[in-house]
Each structure stands twice: as C-alpha cells, then as structure tokens.
Amino acid sequence: MISEPGPQRPVIRVGIAGLGTATKAMLPAFLKHPGIRITAAASLDEEQLRQFHADFAAETYPSVERMCLSPEVDAVYIATPTPFHTEHVLLAASAKKHIILEKPIATSLEEALRMVTAAEAGGVTMVVGHSHSFDPPILKMREVLESGIIGKFTMAHTWCYTDWMYRPRLREELRTELGGGVTFRQGAHQFDIIRLLGGGKVRSIRASAGAWDPKRPTEGSHVVFFDFEDGASATAVYNGYDHFHTTEWTSNIGEWGERVTAGAYASNRKTIRAMSSSQEQALKSSRSGYNGKSSMKYADRDVQQPFFGLTIVSGERGDIRQTPEGLMVYGEEGVEHLKLPQDVNGRDKVVEEFYEAVIQGKRPVHDGRWGLANLEICLAALKSSQEKKEIVLSHQVPLK
C-alpha cells in the first residue's frame, strides 16, 4: 500500500534489487524526489547490505524474493544483471509491487513478453529505464517536433564513438547471449532515442555490427538503418573501440553532462590490454559495488546537458541539434537557442514518469511494451547483421 505522510504528497516506498553501478547512478534521483522513500535493498554481498542499511536505515535481504514480500515495499527498482530480469520481474509482479527495470528488458522476446504479461496481469506499473531517451534535450527535441515548428519528422542520426569496449568489464558484459556488447548495452539507448523522436512506429531495420577484437568477442560497433512506417528514416552509429571520441564534437561534454578531460590517447584500451582477466575483474568489482553514499554517481555535480554522442534531427522545414545549454533549432526564418534547466537529468525523468504513473495514473511512455519494442530492434539489428538482410518488425508501438 502506498504510504501517505500528508495530503499533498503520497510516498512510494522503493526496494532496490542489486547494488551495482546502475543503482549508484540512480540513487541520487530517488533521493531528490520528494515522493520516493528507499526502504529496502537486496544483494548477495553482505558488506554492501551492511553499508546500505547504515546509510538509509533500510531493510536488507539476501534475495529479491524475500524483499518482494516486505510490507514496507511498494515498488522494486530492478538493477540486477540482465539474465535475472525475468525472474525478478515475475517475483515483483506476483507480489503486486510496481517496477522500474533497467534496460535492456531481456535478451529474448519470449522473456520480455512474459514480463510484460505478468505486470499487466498483476495490475502493476512497469517502467523500463534508464535510457537516454529520458534525457531532457531528447525530450525537448520531441516537443519541438510535436509543436510543428520545423514540420513533420523526416530523419534523425545519432552517432557515438567511445572507449566502451575497453572500460573494465565483467565477463558477462562481453558475452552477447547474456546481454553484453554495445548493441544491447549502448544501442538500447540509441534505438530508444530514435524511436521516441520518430514516434515509435519503425517498419524495418537493416544493420551491420562488428566484433573487431578477438580478445573481447562481442559487438563493439554497429551501423543501423531505420525505416519508419510513415516514410521517415534514421541511422544509429556506434563505435566503442577507443580511437576517435565524439566528445571532440560535443564541447568535451560526456553522456551524463560531465566535463571530459582528454588524457593520453587510447589510455583505457592500452591499460586493459596490459591486464590479465582476473585483474580486470577485480578492478571492475572494486568500482561497481555500492560502498557508501560517496560512491553514488552524478550526485551534487555541476554538469551540462548530457551528450550521448551527437544527435541531429530533421523536419520538413528545419533541423535540431544539442548544445551544452539546450538545443539549437534551425527553422525556416532563423535560428533559435532553447535553454534547458541544468538541475534535471534523465534519471530524474525516469523517477518522475514512474511516480506520475503510479500515483496519478498517467500512462508511462517507457512501459513494458515500449521496452519490448526496443529489445526487438536490438535483436533485429544482430540478426540483420548476421543474415545480411532487412528485418521487418512486428512489436513496435506508437509514442503515447
């Protein structure tokens, strides 16, 4: 039952499933929202649980199943590894707990459909995020398109070049079948951006993905072409092999709005290649786990608008691009600079969308079927690359 400390603001009590990197990034957004209270956490790591209890006076559990049975939990944020998403969503839905689920929703359409069906049958809200389509500049781009200022959406292009493949990785992050590689992990962001900008109804895609390092045998690059039902088109390009970085094009601002200071060329790639697998696993583990409030990411920092690479949007009568402060809109008669608030980020928007859905009954954009549609494109991109053919889609849904 949703607790109500006062007439103005009902509170959703949230239990956290998994205390890794995603949770450390989401915690500031939960703590900022006046309608969210963190009341529980589940993890296999006893030390993480002890620290979390000390920081938040929260209940702690060694399993998600036990946490879902708590009467002090109204909703569950599921940030466990992708192969566990189905099990944990089914547990939460059967316990009538609302759900925020990290992307990608799953690694197969069958699993995703099971989750969507369970949430709908249980009468609970499920929001799939974070993805960068929640970022304020992307949402503002869509608002500009809907206003008609630059006419009907005609195309979008999003390009991202990073060092993703040579950041410290757990083994499963480099195994495609477990949801690893850039098409699942980073393409999920790009595809969601494109679908939101274009209205959701993608007809088909054609893709080519690359795995260029035998020691890291998963997709590190892709080029994906989108054909929308209304004739619009888009491309998503990703290269995670640590050569050129698109931060050179984005005023040295990274994907969370942080200022990026250029270090030695390809430093991550050279460092990782000099490590043994066990050394890399130890480094990743030391960085990813929750070890106190000081380990939370993106909290209390002076940041700009986030740049997940470079995204350019076109309408029949103009174009849109990002700036560090907001958007440049190139219209028929001139150029307008739209500034956006600097104190709201994409994860804040995840929590806001979730809260409005649970408390106000507002249907979320990023619900389970939206997440299923995004997964369909991830899988279709991989299939298209393998089979060298266009893949027609069947699970796409319109933007609400």
Automatic annotation (TrEMBL):
Among SUPFAM superfamilies, the record links this protein to: Glyceraldehyde-3-phosphate dehydrogenase-like, C-terminal domain, NAD(P)-binding Rossmann-fold domains
All copies of domain Gfo/Idh/MocA-like oxidoreductase N-terminal, residue ranges:
12-130
Recorded GO molecular functions are: nucleotide binding; oxidoreductase activity
The chain positions of domain GFO/IDH/MocA-like oxidoreductase read 139-245
Q: Does the keyword Kinase apply?
A: no
What UniProt keywords are attached to this protein's entry?
Oxidoreductase
Q: Which InterPro entries match?
A: Gfo/Idh/MocA-like_OxRdtase_N (IPR000683), Gfo/Idh/MocA_oxidrdct_glycsds (IPR050463), GFO_IDH_MocA-like_dom (IPR055170), NAD(P)-bd_dom_sf (IPR036291)
- Quote the protein name from its UniProt record: Gfo/Idh/MocA family oxidoreductase
Species assigned in the record: Paenibacillus validus
